[in-house]
Design brief:
The chain is α/β, with parallel strands linked by helices. It contains ten helices and 18 strands. Bound molecules: zinc ion (2 copies).
Amino acid sequence: MKALRLVQPGRPLELQDLPVPSPGPVDVLVRVKAAGICHSDAHYRAGKSRVHPLPMTLGHEVAGLVEQTGGNVHHLKHGDRVCLHYLATCGTCGYCQEGTEQFCADGRMIGKYRDGGFAEFILMPARSVFKLPAEILFSHGAIMMCSSATSLHALNQARLRPRESVAVFGAGGLGQSALQLAKALGAGVVFAVDINPGKLEIAARFGAVPVNAGASDPLAAIQDLTQGRGVDVALELVGLPLTMQQAVRSLAIKGRAALVGITEKAFPVAPYQEVINKEAEIIGVSDHLAREIPLLLDLAAKQKLDLSNVVTRAVPLDAAAINGTLDRLKNFGDDVRVVVEP
Ligand SMILES: [Zn+2]
Ligand SMILES: [Zn+2]
């Protein structure tokens, strides 16, 4: 089969010919129909995040058709439409048993620590393979497995309850999913905070109250719009110390700030006023969980998570097309999502 692989960081991905892998007893061989090209893939190719071992087939946002199943797989059959939770885990350790498999010591993310979806076929343990409802396009099924799944996990980590208020800091790909999912889970008012008027406009179309952080102080705006109360849940999706601080400061009494964006830098917290006195919480969000995927797919099938505003463009499994897309991601951001369709 053909596969697009990272051979050396800092170099273009290379098209290689590999044998089609054969499934072990609990594995599923999936014929790839769509694999999203993510901003992380540009980081992997540049050597900013470790990919191991090399060469490695990239691609962690994958949907396709079941080609072949191992002898112990009974809930899937040849021809089923599926999408993949991007972690392949052991299924038996304490973390896997508890359903917090992102901490499994044997966990391997596809497209980073085991071969991913920029290929004609991919092998995955059946516990990470989910049926994709007929209403959801392969391209949407693929890209949901990264940003939308993480947005849902962030809301779960923040323990969002019906009618609570939410502020989403960052109205990009993650944010557009997060605010729709917050609404679908019964949130009251949802604020979308960003400096990009175009993104705020899309957020408003999904029912969020736009807060333009480029035009005025977003904290003052949120205080004003909540009669000085603040929000019950704040999601930080940007990965900047400033927005992390704003997320914490925007909280109401008993509020929870879930941090998703990644930064190495510290941000200041005033312990008494901002956390202790309010019994507020600052919560970390890492990846997402396999058991969250069925709800995510259900919401998308019912159109409560609408990805049609996410413009997708397809490219073939071709080195020049995929490397070109990664070049553009590096330079311009990811407003248009590109999927590989082998
Ligand atoms: Zn991704
Ligand atoms: Zn495990």
